[in-house]
Amino acid sequence: MLHHEKRARKKGFELIAGIDEVGRGPLAGPVVASAVIITDLNFIHEINDSKQLSPKKRNLAYSEILNNAIIGIGMAGEDVVDAMNIRRATILAMEKAVMNLGIKPDFLLIDGRIKLNLPYPQKHIIRGDSKSLSIAAASIIAKVTRDTLMMTYHSIYPKYRFDLHKGYGTKTHMKRIVKHGLSPIHRKTFKIKVLR
Asked: C-alpha 148: how far from its chain's center?
C-alpha cells in the first residue's frame, strides 16, 4: 500500500497527498472529497478502501487518520452537481479538498483518471483506494464525512430514510421518492426526475 508513496519520495517529493471522493452515484446529497497527507505510518487499525471496511472499522480508522495525517475536505452540493454535471462537480470537490489541506502538497496521488487543474505533479491510479495508503485514508475520511452529513439530513428529512441508504438509489429510497416527491437535497438532473 506504500508503493506509490515510496516512488514519489524517491523522486524527492515529501508532502504526498492522496485524494479520493465518495458520492458520485447517489441520487441525493453532495459529492465529498478528501485529501490526506499521512504524517505517521504507525496505524493500529486497518486502512483500506472504505468500501471494504465495516462501518465500525471505518470509524476506528477515521479517528486514527485524524491523528496521523493532515486532512482537507471538499464538497460539491447537489445544486452544483445539477449545474455542472457529476464529473465536473467531483473535480471541484477534489480541488477544494487539496486547497483545504492548509499546506501546499508536493505531489498528488489521485484515485481514478481524474486530472485536477492544480499546479502540482499528479499520478492517477485506477482503484487507487486499494493500492495506496494515502488514497485509502482519503477514501475513509470522505466516506465517514459524507455518511455523517447524510445522517444529519435524515434528521431534517426523516421520511426519506437517508440513515439507511445515504442517498443511494435503493428500493426503499425509490419508494419514498415516489411517495413524497423530491427533497431539497435530491439531484434534479439525475434520472429520478421522471418520478416527480
From this structure: 12
For residue range 174-184, what is the model confidence (pLDDT) as tens digits?
999 999 999 99
Reading the block at residue 184, the C-alpha cell is 431539497
State how many domains the chain has: 1
3-state secondary structure at position 32: strand
Write out pLDDT tens, residues 30-73: 999 999 999 998 889 888 888 888 999 999 999 999 999 999 99
Asked if 125 contacts 34 with a C-beta cutoff of 8 angstroms, the reply is: no
Q: For residue 116, give the DSSP letter.
A: P
- The C-alpha atoms of residue 136 and residue 45 are separated, in whole angstroms, by 13
Predicted TM-score (pTM) of this structure: 0.93
Residues β-bridged to residue 124: 110
Residue 16, C-alpha cell as written in the block = 504526498
- For residues 3 and 132, what is the distance between their CA atoms, to the nearest angstrom? 7
H helix and E strand count, the chain: 7, 5
Kind of pairing, strands 122-125 and 107-111?
parallel
φ/ψ of residue 115, rounded to 5: -100, 130
Q: Give the range of the structural domain holding residue 62, as residue numbers without chain letter.
A: 3-195
Q: Grid coordinates representing 168?
A: 443511494
Other residues' Cβ atoms within 10 Å of the Cβ of residue 171: 8
Q: What is the CATH number of the domain that holds 16?
A: 3.30.420.10
> pLDDT category, 193, cuts 50, 70, 90?
very low
